[in-house]
Design brief:
Distance between the termini of chain A: 23 Å
Distance between the termini of chain B: 24 Å
Structural class of chain B: alpha/beta
Low-confidence stretches of chain A: none
Number of helices of chain B: 8
Radius of gyration of chain B: 19 Å
Oligomer: heterodimer
Keywords (chain A): Membrane, Transmembrane, Transmembrane helix
Keywords (chain B): ATP-binding, Nucleotide-binding, Transport
Order of helices and strands of chain A: HHHHHHHHHH
Shape of chain A: globular
Protein name (chain B): ATP-binding cassette domain-containing protein
GO molecular function (chain B): ATP binding; ATP hydrolysis activity
Largest sheet of chain B: 6 strands, mixed
Helix content of chain A: over 70%
CATH architecture of the largest domain in chain B: 3-Layer(aba) Sandwich
CATH superfamily of the largest domain in chain B: P-loop containing nucleotide triphosphate hydrolases
Largest interface: A-B, 22 and 25 residues
Order of helices and strands of chain B: EEEHEEHHHEHEHEEHEEEHE
Number of strands of chain A: 0
Strand content of chain A: under 5%
Radius of gyration of chain A: 19 Å
Number of helices of chain A: 10
Number of domains of chain B: 2
Number of strands of chain B: 13
Helix content of chain B: 25-40%
Chain lengths: ~240, ~280
């Protein structure tokens, strides 16, 4: 597994595919935290859903990077399809964690530089911890959503791009749609629970374990289902 | 030779509505070397991938007597960003080889395939023939149970072809099973115990004794992009390798005179010529 990860990371970093999403997220952070003071919960929530979009792109572009020929060679050398697919997902998860660290570390450092005036109240360790978990969950949901639209699962890439865009938008915007058309709730349930997680923090000043545990757990379960579905479809739709 | 390790029973493969292979039956024995012949698009590559489970079958079944280690040489290796040294190194590590083993074995293989000077060049910047050598080297890094070769010699020069032929013979002697798809009948003659041709989606045995009687010559001409080879002599040309500044033809010996006359008549400049060694 270690060597497989080293190989995937080497291929990924040589491709420069990560540079664009990394810069986009960095630009977002610079822009978003240029206005102060800002509520901790709402700024972390906003940064988390932006990370969801960025990681959806990362997940999608990563599947495009995969070369079917080298993939076949590595699959034969590993001789374990599950391990191979899981190693690729692990690379995406590592990127998700790094981006989450960035999403939390930037405001923390910026707050220190600004003599703790970045936020409307003082930043606590619990804010950093809950914020990090929230970012990681959104990153996980993003990569699982993006990578599900793998070229071997959705062969028509134009349709895949439209679908991933549609799903990502609806994951966040489904709340507003439900307000307008309550019946749509029956359908929106299948989309990643980004809105469902974020709505629990609306108008709150503090993160709390009680309010976070169920939505975060829901997000992790949803992401895990997407991951298992992806591996199942990839094993079903071979070369 | 009697140990069957893979048995394809009534196997068919469709891509959508298109039938690629139909009711294929094939038994593969340990240490056997099998050649698959057929025109482009007849399903040779698909059959190879089905044998190692990289492609799912539509119907029928494939039985393996043990968990086998497959290595595979694809027909078209991609132009990737990694260098040959990096790619081969990672493949070795993934296969579970130690760094020392990888270094020793890869140095040996790079040398045999005349690649010493190119190991630190990104694969995407190598020529087609050299990229194909990387594909071959990754498959020969460690001894597999079954070696699957999809047009392994396409675009390679004669010396590398000889190196490959010798290594393949060595592997077969060690008990490695080789299944190879190829156009070059002279290769079948040198490497295979049995051969099959895919005709109308079915696998037909090929009489190797007929093939074994054919001898070949190699002719090397200066490359000339403005000229085409006369279609009347194409039937005698077994393989045509286009290198940067030369054109290499592997010709059936009984057609050599005819091919040479026509090539010279068409103003191709002959650089060397000789019998293709066994």
């Amino acid at each position: 597994m270690k060597n497989l990860l080293r190989y995937h990371i080497k291929v990924y970093f040589k491709s420069n595919k990560l540079l664009l999403p990394f810069l986009i997220y960095l630009i977002y952070l610079c822009t978003a935290y240029s206005i102060m003071p800002y509520s901790i919960v709402s700024s972390f929530s906003e940064s988390a859903w932006v990370l969801f979009f960025v990681m959806t792109y990362v997940g999608f572009s990563y599947t495009e990077l995969e070369n079917p020929v080298t993939e076949q060679l590595v699959l034969l050398k590993v001789n374990n399809d599950n391990l191979y697919y899981f190693s690729r997902i692990t690379v995406l998860l590592i990127v998700g964690v790094i981006m989450s660290v960035m999403g939390i570390l930037y405001p923390v450092i910026f707050n220190v530089i600004n003599h703790s005036l970045l936020f409307t109240r003082s930043l606590m360790l619990s804010d950093i911890m809950f914020g990090f978990v929230l970012h990681c969950t959104m990153g996980f949901l993003g990569v699982m959503t993006g990578s599900l639209f793998h070229p071997r699962i959705i062969k028509n890439r134009k349709i895949a791009i439209l679908m991933v865009f549609f799903v990502a938008i609806l994951s966040v915007a489904k709340g507003s749609l439900i307000k307008e058309l309550p019946l749509i709730r029956l359908v929106t349930g299948i989309f990643p629970p980004v809105y469902d997680i974020l709505v629990t923090f609306t108008n709150r000043d503090f993160f709390s374990l009680q309010t976070m545990v169920i939505p975060i757990l829901g997000g992790i379960i949803y992401g895990t289902v997407l991951m298992l579905a992806q591996i199942y479809f990839l094993k079903k739709n071979k070369f | 030779m009697d140990d069957i390790i893979i048995a394809l029973n009534n196997v068919s493969k469709n891509f959508g509505r298109r039938i690629i292979l139909e009711h294929i039956n094939l038994t593969i024995k340990k240490g056997e070397s099998i050649a698959l012949l057929g025109h482009n698009g007849t399903g040779k590559s698909t059959l190879l991938r089905m044998i190692c489970s990289l492609t799912n079958i539509t119907s029928g079944n494939i039985k393996y007597t043990a968990r086998l280690k497959f290595n595979y040489v694809p027909e078209h290796f991609p132009k990737i960003d990694l260098t040959a040294r990096e790619f081969i190194g990672y493949m070795g590590l993934i296969e579970g080889m130690s760094e020392k083993m990888i270094n020793d074995r890869s140095r040996e293989l790079f040398h045999e395939f005349f690649m010493d000077e190119m190991i630190d060049v990104p694969i995407k910047h190598l020529s087609k023939g050299t990229i194909q050598k990387v594909a071959v080297i990754q498959a020969l890094l460690q001894t597999p149970d079954v070696l699957l070769l999809d047009e392994p010699l396409s675009g390679q020069d004669s010396q590398s072809q000889m190196a490959f032929i010798n290594l393949s013979k060595e592997l077969t002697n060690q008990g490695v099973t080789v299944v190879m798809s190829c156009h070059e009948r002279y290769l079948v003659k040198q490497l295979s115990h049995s051969a099959y041709e895919i005709i109308d989606k079915n696998l037909m045995p090929v009489n190797l004794t007929g093939l074994k009687e054919i001898d070949y010559d190699i002719m090397v001409f200066d490359a000339n992009r403005d000229k085409n080879i006369d279609s009347s002599i194409m039937a005698g040309i077994e393989q045509l390798n286009n290198f940067e500044n030369r054109l290499e033809l592997i010709v059936r010996r009984n057609k050599s005179d005819e091919v040479l006359k026509q090539m010279l008549k068409d103003d191709f400049k002959l650089r060397s010529m000789g019998a293709k060694e066994e």
